[in-house]
Amino acid sequence: MTFNGGEGIAYHDGRIIFTTKGDNRVWSYHTQSQQLGILYDASDSLTPILTGVDNLTVSQNGDIYVAEDGGNLQIVVIDNQGDLYPIVQLEGQDRSEITGIAFSPDGSRLYLSSQRGTSGLSENGITYEIQGF
Predict the structure, then answer these.
(1) CA-CA 20 to 30 A from 3: which of 18, 53, 56, 85?
(2) How far apart are CA 114 and CA 97, in angstroms?
(3) 8 Å CB contact between 109 and 133
(4) Are 69 and 25 in contact (CB under 8 A)?
């Protein structure tokens, strides 16, 4: 199988979750059963919540956090029921992208970076910490 622009990847509870930017999809591969499936496909919606899929991470309870490169510069959660909702949006940073999303070891803090910050220059990147997860 060929994938269209692989981007983010994470492993959680026997699954490899990854994104393909070229077709705006989030995939899941179950290592035990060797089953591959699409968790999210932007083309399935006339008004997709998530576009420009890029980096991702998985919370301790299995919710998938997908960062957008482009789109609305959001982090969008795909929860265990398959529902999607944005939790973070970078404003005034249109010449940047969200990178490096990760949870603290105890799962209580989410970290993300704006690759080029508000200036659009790589030396002005910004890292954020969000508490309360």
Answers:
(1) 85
(2) 6
(3) yes
(4) no
Q: Are 32 and 14 in contact (CB under 8 A)?
A: yes
User: Which structure tokens are listed for 82?
Assistant: 């398959």
Rg for the chain, CA atoms, rounded = 15
CA atoms within 13 A on the CB side of 42: 19
37-74 pLDDT per residue, tens: 999 999 999 999 999 999 999 999 999 999 999 889 99
In the structure, how many helices (H) and strands (E) does the chain have? 0, 11
pLDDT recorded at residue 64 = 98
Contact assessment for residue 68 and residue 51, using Cβ atoms and an 8 Å cutoff: yes
**Is 80 exceeded by the pLDDT of residue 133?**
no
Reduced to 3 states (helix: H, G, I; strand: E, B; else coil), residue 43 is helix
Place of tokens 């510069």: 73
- Residue 10 bridge partners (DSSP): 17
